[in-house]
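Most newcomers find our protein records easier to grasp once they have seen one. A learned vocabulary of local backbone shapes supplies the integers on the structure line. Here is such a record, shown just as it appears in the course material:
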Amino acid sequence: MDLGDGGAAAGPGPALGRGGLEALQHTVGSVLSSYGWFLLLAAVAVYLLVQKVSRSLAARPGAAEAAEEPDVVVRRQEALAAARLRMQEELNAQAERYKEKQRQLEEERRRQKIAMWESMQEGKSYKGNLKLNQQEVEPGASASAVPKSKPNKKPLRGGGYNPLSGEGGGTCSWRPGRRGPSAGG
């Protein structure tokens, strides 16, 4: 087979002569010598990527079954919709319970405010009244009760402590800064 005769059976496009084939070999050789390692690494990366994608598609659950049995897909979707509906109903019930609890708390706050207002109108201390309402203590017992005094606590510092004197401070003593211009510059 002669590459240089230029017949129609030589291939698509213009016939390659001896010079054209050498130019093609030279071009391909220079590209491979310049970028050969990059092309090899790119080919390996593409091969590994194709293998990973084909494995993930084959391992996908129900991918092959869905094409074969549409009834399975329909049942799965119905089960999913039923589960979503149950979850939504549970969420709605929780929201109702929360709203009811909030209404009860708001009603209790309103009652406390009314009680506080009434006690203020009567000239009583509203704080003491609120404490009595919360603890549910009889009003007669609270009027005769004497408040407890706190136990005697030792003061943190002695009576003769003066922070400006510089005594008793230990290692923490304040000294005024140097006078005159700053040392920088």
About this structure: The chain has a mean pLDDT of 77. The two ends are 92 Å apart (CA to CA). The helical segments are 18-59, 63-68, 70-122, 126-135, 139-144.
